[in-house]
């Protein structure tokens, strides 16, 4: 069967489809579009576009190639003409059986900028060779796309959130299959299952994957991340709380200087306290330790990425990295090979109780570490797991009514930046004031797609300007946010201007106050555009490292939604330690 050259032509005929370079070659043809009518279609480096032979309003006219993930031939079948009276029918003028192919992709939601929806466009032509040429050309171009994954390890938490982990995976599994992405799926059978698999996986198998996907919540991702990092991330421990080691000890992983040795920082509060002791290591200009990595699998690693398909209770990491809690949108970021770097905090517990021996125990957190109110809520919520995500609201109310405070001491490494310059205080307004460290709302830079803050290599501080400060007293809560931690209960997150990859943690200290004032603070967190730091009992500090010592015998922390007992601990942040299949929120 011969084709009419005027009906379907490929420019730059010297380039066969397999050598389509996305610049010099294009394909154009008159095809029928299902439920629309006859269209003139063009495919080039910008994507697939078409225009109706008789233009109509409210009809999609293009899909960017960067949003296409698959194309498939549908052999001989029925394609439907438009129901609009003034549109032409298909090539024969009526509903007819012709050869068809379908282009699958994603499109941005018309109402929510970060949300993606699935789209599929079925085109038809009376000539099989014409359809096959289009399929081959698009597939050849898809094969040239850089960064798209080919092989993934997927962990599914069947009881995550409302127990919809398996259902969530089933809703998106066909997208991976259609995009020709191989997936090895492991449905976890017990707590710690994913951790054990990630910790024991051999380097040969690990490098065969383009990444690891977690179908679950923040806690499940934390389990996978820790299984991956604990055996592969080689870095010195963070600073230790001052005074709890009476003599220098050192082995392959644990090295602390003598308390009488010269400190590298100076205290900032009337020079009352000695700075925390530091490991024997060198630090970069961010105040972050230099890392010695295993040559077999270096970190950060541009090729290997993590992905999260949300099925949890809060899904704060997904909210901050994609802008929405939507499995389809997360799948869009994964199959199209998006990439964003993510800071990770290393938390080292030195003692479980005040009477315990010093035994360093390492965990990692990608979003948040919290003590006091946050630790009590996660502890209380464990009693009501049968309630599902609602248990957090119930547990939070019970903990709030108890209004319990804790004696503790925090030391943190100050970070000086342009926005941290002193801002004159406003007068005391019912317990409220503008802290000198808090920039005005108009000055805050929110993390988003192509974030300038995350992409800059300029240090946030200079080595000569770093110093240790200390805060001791009674606290309702202590929080360290690695990212903004946006969620349904806090639309701006705990810290509206926290970034995904700036090498900083946001230390939030809530000192003891009245019930009414604390409730006022919490309502500001729950309100979009609120000012939760605009109170005199709230301290907000940007830092690269901090230490904590409880004055009580025991204390419980919340690490990415998981319980973590620690009487004494230290934390430091590693800038862009891991990469995610994401691009940041479109806000």
Automatic annotation (TrEMBL):
GO biological process, one term: sphingolipid metabolic process
Pfam families registered for this protein in UniProt: CERK_C, DAGK_cat
GO cellular component terms given for this protein: membrane
Record field: transmembrane: none
Domain DAGKc: 147-351
InterPro entries recorded: ATP-NAD_kinase_N, CERK_C, Diacylglycerol_kinase_cat_dom, Lipid_Phosphate_FormReg, NAD/diacylglycerol_kinase_sf
Molecular-function GO terms, alphabetical: kinase activity
Coiled-coil portions: none
Protein name: DAGKc domain-containing protein
Gene source species: Prunus persica
